[in-house]
């Protein structure tokens, strides 16, 4: 073996007890893409998903030690942009154990977080090399350099130390544009496909359908510039690249036929955007004789959803759309680059639901101009919308986002450890706002979660739509209370 690509775990630190049953276990997209790229370059490559296999850092390091790979690639992209930073703790633990057992192996770390903070990463983490771009070409060139086929100074996108300890950052390679042929990620045979499961909410009404599960991508990047988002950190520009609709549908078809997958996530940060892209995918899927069996969820923006497209999306198997609503207050939401009116939000949510597509409303508490009053308005909007599911986040300054840059420039307190960037971790530390402390924001977020999911209006809606079993599941879910360090410290 030449290269071993690793997806680190760490679910217990990221989600506390929620990671046991409620959260998804998702196939690692960027680990797949990098592995496929290297295999196409005729390298001998394997992929180890320690998260899906439930391996701790010691067990994973032992498996790595048994391999004869000379280059270890730790991929910390995560399943959404923000998940890259919170995965760093698991990556650090694993790298530490690899150095103990396999000091002859070189470690390259790749991901959105490290691309945002490459010099900091190589200075602080127990790795040999850091990638400052998206990864695949850097991995290939670094292997060539380790084999003596090119100089380390010429490895595009590499951050490295010379013999005197000086850090060097090489120029990034051009972004890969031929996604169908070069970033296909067709390495499903290397993954433990029986281990992946969907989020609990995606299978309301039929919890048995959470497995088997798979995620596919149709685009990379996002053209928008929301202040809280870090998706474009590894691309170094606002970017939106598309796979061909036929390639996407062929992959879904293969996963359905070979692995019996019916439950899917479309990973794109913004699937419902370019009509000539996503509608072609939907049309091709709708033509499949099993389209009615599919349960697909995808991201959209309120201002990109069109009423006349909803029927086609539903016929393609899209049963859930996740909408970034963020805040009820227009001035707060403007800071997230979303100038929308609340009545427009209500209108489009109702139209989506009328098309028999479920809605996940994503709300953020603690954006820079938030106060208790505006956060209460956001919670009131969430209750008015009464979406089939809701995610409540506290605003976090993720590396690679504008909020992170502002926090550093203004000496605003940030988490001490990368696990503190997880929304659900014990040491979670969100941003303070102009009017509220970080502890106040986090406490409001946690109480809003329980308020919403234990609300009579919501529970009756869910019981009528998905049945008593799902209703009882949500009641039990809302009983789980997360411990929070900053709240406990404040209250003591």
Concise description?
The protein has 492 residues and is an alpha/beta fold. The chain has helices at residues 11-15, 29-40, 50-53, 57-66, 83-86, 88-101, 112-116, 118-124, 136-146, 179-182, 245-259, 275-286, 310-315, 330-334, 342-354, 372-385, 402-409, 438-453, 456-466, 468-477, 485-491, and strands spanning 3-7, 45-49, 71-75, 106-110, 129-131, 158-161, 167-169, 213-216, 219-220, 241-242, 263-266, 295-300, 318-326, 358-365, 389-394.
Folded structure, characterized:
Helices cover about 40% and strands about 15% of the residues. The chain has helices spanning about 10-15, 30-40, 50-55, 55-65, 85, 90-100, 110-115, 120-125, 135-145, 180, 245-260, 275-285, 310-315, 330-335, 340-355, 370-385, 400-410, 440-455, 455-465, 470-475, 485-490, and strands spanning about 5, 45-50, 70-75, 105-110, 130, 160, 165-170, 215, 220, 240, 265, 295-300, 320-325, 360-365, 390-395. The strands form 3 sheets. A 7-stranded mixed beta sheet has the order 2-1-3-4-5-6-7, with helices on both faces. Strands 8-11-12-13-14-15 form a 6-stranded parallel beta sheet. Helix 12 links the parallel strand 11 (about 265) and strand 12. The radius of gyration is 22 Å and the shape is globular.
